């Protein structure tokens, strides 16, 4: 069945459309891959979404293949938009009860991903957390995920400001671990989510100094921002 498509937004290699009239409400993530490497990234996202079934993870519905380098992932539509939009909406008032409610949901989703599927997200940020019509929060956008039983490559993923100090610090010996697996630990997702809860409470963006790479982690800057 064909549905009317309403364009919502665009990513680096994808466009997102609301499928008008689809039940349940759904979006189509239409992916345009120029190379095999790009295709593999989105194939990985698709395979992960199929396995993850949790009330606080964006639900997978089905996949549509268009041609060798174009396909679509149809998934649950979170109609209230992403968390960044909610946090900075001056007309939206929420309480610490809501913050605790959201925190329990999101940490529960991370726990499920790690314990049940050995998956780490690697790009937890407000833009990748979405709100359903009943204000339930759901983690989405799994393009940077990694199965932690795979060999850790030490490659960076994620947004600079939401990376943990061990990820940013080139002197990893100071954190008690020399190998590059620090960059791919599930603990980094926990750190990122903790930072997001800070932003939810204060309703402002924190650690803006790390938006632009400045030669790595600055311990003095980190602690002065905290205290």
From TrEMBL:
Its EC number is 2.7.11.1. Keywords: ATP-binding, Kinase, Nucleotide-binding, Transferase. ATP binds at residue 29. The keyword Kinase applies. GO terms for molecular function: ATP binding; protein serine/threonine kinase activity. The keyword ATP-binding applies. It comes from the Eukaryota. Residues 2-227 form the Protein kinase domain. InterPro entries: Kinase-like_dom_sf (IPR011009), NEK_Ser/Thr_kinase (IPR050660), Prot_kinase_dom (IPR000719), Protein_kinase_ATP_BS (IPR017441). Belongs to the protein kinase superfamily. NEK Ser/Thr protein kinase family. NIMA subfamily. This is non-specific serine/threonine protein kinase. It comes from Mesorhabditis belari.
